[in-house]
Automatic annotation (TrEMBL):
This is Delta(24)-sterol reductase. It is found in: Endoplasmic reticulum membrane; Golgi apparatus membrane. Its EC number is 1.3.1.72. GO terms for biological process: cholesterol metabolic process. Belongs to the FAD-binding oxidoreductase/transferase type 4 family. GO terms for molecular function: Delta24(24-1) sterol reductase activity; Delta24-sterol reductase activity; FAD binding. Keywords: Cholesterol metabolism, Endoplasmic reticulum, FAD, Flavoprotein, Golgi apparatus, Lipid biosynthesis, Lipid metabolism, Membrane, NADP, Oxidoreductase, Signal, Steroid metabolism, Sterol metabolism, Transmembrane, Transmembrane helix. It comes from Grallaria varia. InterPro entries: Diminuto-like, FAD-bd_PCMH, FAD-bd_PCMH-like_sf, FAD-bd_PCMH_sub2, Oxid_FAD_bind_N. The chain crosses the membrane at residues 32-50. The gene is Dhcr24. Pfam families: FAD_binding_4. It catalyses: 5alpha-cholest-8-en-3beta-ol + NADP(+) = zymosterol + NADPH + H(+); lanosterol + NADPH + H(+) = 24,25-dihydrolanosterol + NADP(+).
Length: 516
């Protein structure tokens, strides 16, 4: 009884404090209170529901049987839209707050919402080494499903909640991308419902124009209903080598050298200042030195970026063996380093041991509850951007990030960009090594102004024939956007498939200058 009285008194004091400070002030300046008391428990319930659902679906073998029926329902909705006179654009009915993107899209309120309830793994074909999945399957769900079978996919983009559909219609990357390319380059086929309600399969040999135009199109060519993704054999561990490097020129040289080595299964860099970084290389293995195994994904472990920083502070190299699934999701618990701004004491050992099992809060729930004040605060004083630039421009790019943003750590992830048709390809006729520079956090640059600073960044990225990931805020004009991206195939298909009345152009859907 005394415990209940204590809890009650604590809640009463909390409510009085919130009333005194004002709810908006608490949510903006003490957001951790709301996150710890409400969003973390809700996130756990969210996860339990989806895990139980995925288990039940697979045990009952219902997903393959029901997939065709669910696709027919999508087709029926599209035909209904046509019969109504095609008066509005169409979009998926998935609420905007459920996406991992921090961008707030208001178009769902005025467009025809097509409900797409497709979130199951359909088939694992060991002979073809291909897994067939629905678009709302998440990376956490997929690796949990494949790893016990001895499989994984070549590119596992970092955060658990990223979905196959989002990674295809947008893009995805991981530290294995210097070998396999972006997520889209590991896909062998897509199935889409088009603007006329027809179901089409496309691959490099079947409807190839559509296959190459779908990535980066953000759902403006059709509704993705299934994808086939390559699989590779999984191994138990990733043997990681940590190497601190100082001096920007040396950092860029070392990172480029390691990115060109195909014997490295993984290459990643964390830049902690303009001239301090840790370069990590990894290889898949089934054998491990027991004393060097680090199960970094366990809830009580330090956040990965903080763990890596220890090698920099100690100025020493190191080798560890991380279980493969822990490695694939190594930045998930801290949402890279974003969680330190939400729960400042989140990496404290006491918090990790007591509450680390509840971390991270769902990004979708953070978006749902952020409110207009927090959204504006983040928009003006916070950056979440990934810029893809040629490796040859890495040093100049980092200097530009430092001048225009001054955000650290910076994430460095190399990838090979093949010369395929579509919106994103190298300037020349051959594949080229690129690097994703990820900036997530509060800029330390004086007089930072979001629109002006990001337009300056976008101008630089265009000048080196780079690309901006489209999940983030984009400030380009239409002319600038299509200067960055190759729209020739995309526009041709929109004309051929009568998409102009069915879906907005990708620019109108994602760019702030055009967004509704």
């Amino acid at each position: 009884m005394s415990a209940l009285w204590s809890v009650g008194a604590g809640l009463l004091l909390l409510l009085l404090w919130v009333r005194h400070r004002g709810l908006e002030a608490v949510l903006v300046h003490h957001r951790w209170v709301f996150v710890c008391l409400f969003l973390l428990p809700l996130s756990i319930l969210f996860d339990i529901y989806y895990q139980l659902r995925a288990w039940a679906v697979w045990r009952l073998h219902s997903a393959p049987r029901q997939h065709a029926q669910r696709v027919r329902h999508i087709q029926a909705q599209v035909r209904e839209w046509k019969n109504e006179g095609s008066k509005r654009y169409m979009c998926t009915g998935r609420p905007g707050w459920l996406t991992v993107s921090l961008r707030v899209g208001k178009y769902k309120k005025i467009h025809k919402n097509i409900m797409i309830n497709l979130m199951d793994v359909l088939e694992v074909d060991g002979e073809r080494q291909v897994v067939r999945v629905e678009p709302l399957v998440s990376m956490g769900q997929l690796t949990a499903h494949l790893n016990p079978m001895g499989w994984t996919i070549p590119v596992v983009p970092e955060l658990d909640d990223l979905t196959v559909g989002g990674l295809i219609m947008g893009t995805g990357i991981e530290s294995s991308s210097h070998i396999y390319g972006l997520f889209q380059h590991t896909c062998v086929a897509y199935e889409l419902v088009l603007a006329d309600g027809s179901l089409v399969r496309c691959s490099p040999t079947e409807n190839s124009d559509l296959f190459y135009a779908v990535p980066w199109s953000c759902g403006t060519l059709g509704f993705l209903v299934a994808a086939e993704i390559k699989m590779i054999p999984a191994k138990k561990y990733v043997k990681i080598h940590y190497e601190p490097v100082r001096g920007l020129q040396k950092i860029c040289q070392k990172f480029t050298e390691e990115s060109k080595k195909k014997e490295n299964s993984f290459v990643e860099g964390l830049l902690y200042s303009l001239d301090e970084a840790v370069i990590m290389t990894g290889v898949l293995t089934d054998e491990a030195e027991q004393s060097k195994i680090n199960r970094i994904g366990n809830y009580y472990k330090p956040w990965f970026f903080k763990h890596v920083e220890k090698y920099l502070k100690a100025d020493r190299t190191g080798i560890e063996y991380i279980p493969s699934r822990h490695y694939y999701h190594r930045h998930t618990r801290s949402i890279f380093w974003e969680l330190q701004d939400i729960i400042p004491f989140g990496n404290n050992p006491i918090f990790r041991y007591l509450f680390g099992w509840m971390v991270p809060p769902k990004i979708s729930l953070l978006k749902l509850t952020q409110g207009e004040a927090i959204r504006k605060l983040y928009e003006q004083h916070h950056v979440v951007q990934d810029m893809l630039v040629p490796m040859r421009s890495l040093e100049k790019s980092i200097q530009t990030f430092h001048i225009d943003l001054n955000v650290y750590p910076l994430w460095l992830c190399p990838f090979i960009l093949p010369n395929n048709p579509g919106m994103v390809h190298p300037k020349g006729d051959e594949a080229e090594l690129y690097v994703d520079i990820g900036a997530y956090g509060e800029p330390k640059r004086k007089q930072f102004e979001a629109r002006a600073s990001m337009r300056q960044m976008e101008k630089f990225v265009r000048s080196v024939h780079g690309f901006q990931m489209l999940y983030a805020d984009c400030y380009m004009t239409r002319e600038e956007f299509w200067d960055m991206f190759d729209g020739s195939l995309y526009h041709k298909l929109r004309e051929q498939m009568n998409c102009k009345d069915a879906f907005p152009e990708v620019y109108d859907k994602i760019c702030k200058a055009a967004r509704h």
